[in-house]
Design goal:
By secondary structure, the chain is α/β, with parallel strands linked by helices. 41% of the residues lie in helices and 12% in strands. Bound molecules: pyridoxal-5'-phosphate (PLP).
Length: 430
């Protein structure tokens, strides 16, 4: 495909007509496809169906003799903590296993920090004049929604391909009002980026204006590889400890996209002081988590190797879907100069940067043609993408054939919106 910007007026208009016709033809098919949220597909959930019959009748005692059916065990069963210790990069005694949803654990951690402060705080965060978070963009909309809910100011920082722009992060972190930062260090949502060793090292060692600064290290995609290479990122807990900032990271993860999205386990891992802090708050909220589910996960996944094999089965289901999206983008848009996109090696998303000023238009065109996309802007704080440029594609949930059909339409919409933008610019005489 030739670069759209290099076409003369006549060729551009001819192309616009041709692409419009193709779009109208696709629209006439009356499809109804959904590429909005990063949910596991039913076949992925089926991989964990055996969980539903576990633990077997009578098998409800933990290795320490605790009755998993009963109250208590706030920190989680030792065997569940041990099983996920390598995923979290923390020893079992510095891990808390919670019920489903790491998002809930993140929410609670932030709400408690606002209400009570964290170890090292002089006052609850809510008493600071402008509690602020650093938000790498594009990022995860639900992180931003928590900040928005509680009036936390958000400072966007661009992603670089190696994680967030660390010069910008360090400059912001020097401000005492900046209390924390969101990080999705591996296969980031939505860019798929993997934080480099240098990024992690700088995050661990940087000077912060707030003595109670916290990195919310959301390792949601820790084991969600799409290639044979199981990427690793630096161990934030160890690196912070070595840099004399042991309390800086709160590490989160879950099995939502390992076993069952609505019935998995969520994890919090941190320094001994932070774990004590977390448990003291959690103990007011609950008498104990669902330990039967913890036992169920231990019986089902068994060990690190079991977890690895299980994730390989996910990979086999997901790779064709990601490839279908990438093939459609490549065949329609490569060389046009109007879009670029991530080629993730893990995680749940493909991030597409379309021609500035057209992301909302692309979403509207796709909707008209029967494809639901995540709203444009969702990857930015307050849903405001200043360049109206970024789109997040979520290919995991629909069936492969649907992903193929939807991707074709999406790529065409990106092209059409880009061409129309160029036409507009030409008409204005730019
Ligand atoms: C980065 C990130 N964190 C957290 C979540 C949600 O995790 P959970 O299901 O454990 O609440 C998601 C889901 O898409 C995510 O992308």
């Amino acid at each position: 495909m030739t670069r759209i910007a290099d076409l003369n007026q006549e060729d551009l208009h001819a192309l616009r007509l041709q692409v419009r016709q193709e779009y109208d033809a696709l629209r006439a098919r009356g499809l109804k496809l959904d590429m909005t949220r990063g949910k596991p597909a039913p076949e992925q959930l089926n991989l964990a169906n055996r969980l539903l019959a576990l633990p077997r009748d009578g098998d409800h005692f933990s290795e320490t003799g605790e009755d998993a059916r009963n109250y208590g065990g706030l920190q989680g069963l030792p065997e569940a903590r041990a099983l996920f210790a390598p995923v979290l990069g923390a020893p079992a005694d510095r891990i808390v296993v919670s019920n489903n949803s790491s998002l809930a654990v993140m929410h609670d951690s932030l709400a408690w920090a606002l209400l009570k402060g964290v170890p090292g705080s002089e006052a609850p965060w809510s008493q600071a004049p402008w509690p602020t978070f650093i938000c790498p963009v594009p990022g995860y909309d639900r992180h931003f929604a928590i900040c928005e809910e509680y009036g936390i100011r958000m400072r966007p920082v661009p992603m670089t391909g190696q994680g967030p722009d660390m010069d910008a992060v360090e400059a912001l972190a020097a401000d005492p009002a900046v209390k924390g930062m969101w990080c999705v260090p591996k296969y980031s949502n939505p860019t798929g980026e993997i934080y480099s060793s240098e990024t992690v090292q700088r995050l661990a060692a940087m000077r912060t204006g707030a003595p109670d600064f916290r990195i919310f290290w959301d390792n949601a995609y820790a084991v969600h590889h799409l290639t044979e290479r199981r990427h690793e990122v630096g161990n934030i807990l160890d690196l912070c400890a070595k840099a004399n900032n042991p309390d800086r990271p709160f590490v989160f993860a879950s099995t939502s996209k390992v076993t069952l999205a609505g019935a998995g386990l969520a994890f919090f891992a941190s320094s001994a002081a932070n774990v004590r802090w977390y448990l003291a708050r959690a103990g007011k909220r609950t008498i104990g988590p669902d330990k039967l589910n913890q036992l169920r996960h231990v019986r089902f996944l068994k060990d690190e190797e079991g977890l690895r094999r299980h994730m390989d089965s996910h990979r086999a289901l997901l790779v064709p879907k990601f490839n279908a999206v990438l093939a459609a983008l490549e065949s329609r848009l490569a060389g046009t100069g109007i879009a670029s996109w991530s080629k993730p090696e893990g995680g749940y998303f493909i991030s597409v940067d379309v021609m500035p000023g057209t992301a909302r238009q692309v979403v509207a065109l796709a909707k008209d043609a029967g494809v639901a996309l995540t709203p444009a802007g969702a990857t930015w704080p307050h849903a405001r993408d200043p360049q109206d440029r970024n789109l997040r594609l979520a290919p995991t949930y629909p069936a492969l054939e649907e992903v193929r059909a939807a991707s074709e339409i999406i790529a065409l919409c990106v092209l059409l919106a880009g061409i129309e933008k160029h036409c507009e610019a030409q008409e204005k005489g730019h």
